[in-house]
Each structure stands twice: as structure tokens, then as C-alpha cells.
């Protein structure tokens, strides 16, 4: 298709805002493009939009919760489209099948997968748009597209003197055929990928411009709080709201599935009314356990059930029979809360036979199921507006707070903002599971001949499938929701993906040991659990890398050299291990009163080695320095990689030093940061991050900083005190 310059000027002079070019991401439905003459829009399913006034919009299918998707994924588009990342305006995706995470078949952000799953598709989308714009300009100039080039949002004529902005070309570009297999820019031509360019949302966040869930304000909005049973499994028996209804601003008090809701014209008025409710709970089916009882049940389960084999190599039984000695250890890790900076909240508005929800959710399609479940609506009647998230760490993959807000709004018929207090957020979390690990190694001479790892604890899918299964089949009637969940569990590993949450990081054991026996004994004490930053890698990392240190000590070997001798067949593991050791000056004596510990772990495809330098001062553990070497494949934004690894280190150290949710008679004892503390700024160590320059496909960075730092600290304390700690959190004196 060609168009002479005079006709082109006539067309573009008469156009106004609203013309767009959109491209479906490969793998999405609706790959065909179409141009609407009436609206001027081109509307397939997943879009990159360019308008006649030179604006570029990118629909971000992954949420932004501090991990950098807003910047990183936009950079991929910018690189291939030949525009500056700051010239692109990201916006959060609506719920649609086209935006599902291909690894999970759900529209969710988690598992450090955003960059890995977007690396090719988004670059292809940007490159396709660039090629179509170049072809459009070439048709105007009547030249070969191969002689034109794109630069800074314009297509440049072969003579180098003329150019046309993308905005003037969108209508003609919309008529071009979408390239089937566009050639992507070679690495040596990249302008934005691999460079430090700050975060696109930094200025806005510094000025308070972005809207988080808790910031949502709507005309006529009211506020709700919910009193939930203090023990999981309890049910409401009765309540007296007479005193609450007398207080100013109180609009209604009523029962919902998860407790008693109070609605008022102001948030603090709702809280005041909540304080004077009299509630009687039916505890006949409620939890009544303590942490000691949890671990007693784990040990009993481990004794009675060797567990399902998850990885077996060689013959571990023969290795035990022929071993000169066996080394045994057991490790226990407690329940952990997510403690996101922004507590759980959602705003919902039921009107016009539908409900709109504004929420900081990691899984908006599951949010639709959550809202539909507690109303008379179908998922198609629910609209989810995803906001910025004040931390996720896996907690916001479960949409119980959307259920509550929707149930209240469905009854009230007004826009309702529901907010959890910090105490509610702590006591009604879905926790990182408590886990038990039984380890054994067979040793002959100075060689480890066998490795046995029995993991004891629950699977997270058991708790998550309730809304996840219906989200995969949103057309299903609601009476089938629970059935779909049960079928999903029964078909796990067959028709549905296997749940690796308990075993990940253990089954990928990388060291060269000839006989392996790795098992999972599935037992669940009934405490609600969910994904927590780095999931199974977090507890398996502690068990594996602490036991590796114990074996080095048993054999009288240096912990670094011991690992190195067993990992020399894994070049990427070896690279980060050697880098961390060099940076930490491992072979030099630590400063007086300090010691160093080391750990090496691969999670979410990313290789991380860490060396921790620590001491015990005035009866408290003090972490002075953490050196991290990281291989996460091709880096898109080095600053964000450093930010995420540093954040993971602080998150992991918090868990190692303070993380401990305890139960007494089925109730959580912790309530706020005074008894569930986070690492404070004055406790923060120096963190050094060394990033491997790699051309491999990018992998995740939001979580891999967590798993190695916990055992590395424990190993440092052993080097310092000579006492081995096998139970978290770590103590200054054991």
C-alpha cells in the first residue's frame, strides 16, 4: 500500500486524537488486528497503543508492587519501539485471558516470573509496531522500508533529513500486515536494556501521585471493618450490636461469611463501633493447637510416613550400608507473616447489577471469583481495577479481603472501602508454612556418598485452589466452584500442575553426590498458609545450606572449598560462588569479634551466592556485611536488580532474626511490629551486589535474594560461636 505525500498530508491534517495502533502479544488470543473507522481505534486483546498526538500507552499485564515491572517491562517495549522508556505511559491490565501468566494459566504476578515470561513477547510487540510504522512511512515516501530507520519516536527518511513522527503514521501503520517473525535488535544496538536508568515511577511515588489500594477515594464512599474469629475454623454464634449502633456515623452492622461487618461514614468511627461489639464464637471446629503441638505432629508424621519420593538417584540404601559414618540433623522453621507495608484493603461498589472493585491484588482474575462467590453475581459482572501494591510477597495472591469488601458493598449499595488494621493483618494472615526437615548424609573417608532429605509439612495449593480453580473456568456456575477446587487437588500433577511449594529448592540439589533420596511427607495441621517471598526455597535453602556447612565441618574442610569441590560441574553456580568469596575476602581473617558464613542457592532460575559477616554484640546478633553475587541472565535494569537483591537480603534477615508466628490454643499471639518486628534501618548491614554479565535469558530477581542469606547468617554464627542452630529464628545465645 502506497500513498503520495499530498494525500498523506490531507489524511493526517484531518485526523484528531483517538487513532491507535495495537498489537496482541504472541501467545494471546486475537492475534489479528483490525481498524475501526468510526472510533479510530484498533482493538485486539493485549495492546500497545500509539495515538495521533504522539502518546504511547503500554498495558502492563503484571502488577507493580515495588519489584520494578512498571520500569522493566516498559523498557522492553521502549527498546524495540525506539522510544525512550519515559515516553511510554504504562497502565494496569483489565482482567482478560490474554493477560494470563503463561506459567500458571492465571492472571497473576508471582514466582519472580514477570521478566522471564515477558522478555520475548514484549520485545516482539515493540519490534512489530516499529516495523509497521516504518512500512507506513516508506509507503508515503515511496522508498524501500529497508532504507528507513526508526529513532526517538520518529521514522527517518533514507536521506537523513526528513522524518515523520509516529503519531502522524498510526492510521497508515494500522493498515500494514503484522510481521510474522520480526527481527529483534541485536544486543550491541541496545540503548536501554542493560543500563541504569532509574525507575519510571520514582518521581510519582516520591510525590504521592500513584494510587495504592488504600488511597482510593470515591464520591459518597463509606468505610467498613470486619471482626473475624480469633481462632481459625470458629464460626459466629451470636452478636450484640446495640451499643455500636448508638455511636455517631454508624450506618449498619451485619454478619458476613467471614465475621461481623461494621459500616460507618468514617474509618475511625467504624473502628470505635467495632470495639463495643459483643460477639460469641462457636469454637467447636476451631483450631486449638500450639507451635509445640505442630512440630510434635510433624515429627510423628515423619516417623510414620517416609513420604513420597520426589527425587531419587543411585541407591541411597546401599550408600548407607557401605558408609563409614552417618551424619544426621533436623531443622525446624516457624510460621511467618507477610507483614506488607500496606495492610489488606479493597474498595467495592455495587451498582447497575454489577460490582466494581479497586484493590491491590496480585491476582485480579481470582479477585473476580472472590467477589462473585459472595454475591449473586457472575465473574462477568465483576470489574477489577488493579492499583499499585504496597508490598505483596505472595500475600495478595489470596483475595480474602476482596471477598469481604464485595460482601459488604453488595448489601450496602454504596462505594465501600474496607481496611484491615495492622493487628488484623498479622493475626489473620495466610502464613508461610512451618516446616520440618530431616537430613542425613552417608560419608566414607572425606567423601559424601549419599544425601537424604525428608521434608515434612503442608502444600500451599491445598489452601489456594479454592478460587484458583474457578478462575481457570470463569464460565462455570458458582455451585461448581468448590467441586472445581476438589478436582484440581485430585488431578494435581496429572491434569493440573504439580505443587512444588514444599519441595522446591530441595529437588534441585546441585551438588555432585552419587546417591540422592529426597522425599516429602505431606501433613497439614490446619493453619492457613500461602505463598511467601521465595516460597519453598526459603525453608529448603536453610536446611540444605546449613547441612552442607555441617558436612564441611564434619569432614574438616573449608565451607567454600567443600562446596566448590562438589559444584565444579555447574559453571553458573561456580561463577557466583567464586565471585562472592573474592568480594568478601573470604581467605582473609574477619575483623576481631566477627565471623563469616557462606551459602549458595539457585531459585527461580537465578543463581545467588552470599557471604554474611556477623557478630554478637551486647547479647544481640549484629549483621555487618552481606556480599551477594548474582547471575539472573540478561539484566534489563541493573539498579532494579540491586534493589531487589538488597530487599531480599533484608527480608531474609528479618525472618532469620525475628520471624516467628506462634499459636496458643489456636490463636496467633503476635499483633503488630512490637512483637513481630522487622529489621530497622540502624540494624541494616552493608549489602554489596555483584551482577554477572550474562547473555542468557533473564530470570527472576524479586525473591532469589532471600533463601541464601538465612543459612549464611546461621553458618557465620557457627563459625563465631562453635554452636550450631537448627531452629529459626536464630538466637544470640544458644
Task: Explain how this protein is built.
This protein has 734 residues and is of the alpha+beta class. Helices cover 31% and strands 22% of the residues. The chain is built from 19 helices and 26 strands. The chain has a seven-stranded mixed beta sheet, sandwiched between helices. Helix 3 packs across helix 4, helix 10 (364-373) crosses helix 13 (461-472) and helix 15 packs parallel to helix 19 (706-721). It is globular, with a radius of gyration of 28 Å. Residues 299-319 are annotated as: Disordered. It comes from Marinobacter panjinensis. Residues 207-285 form the Aldehyde oxidase/xanthine dehydrogenase a/b hammerhead domain.
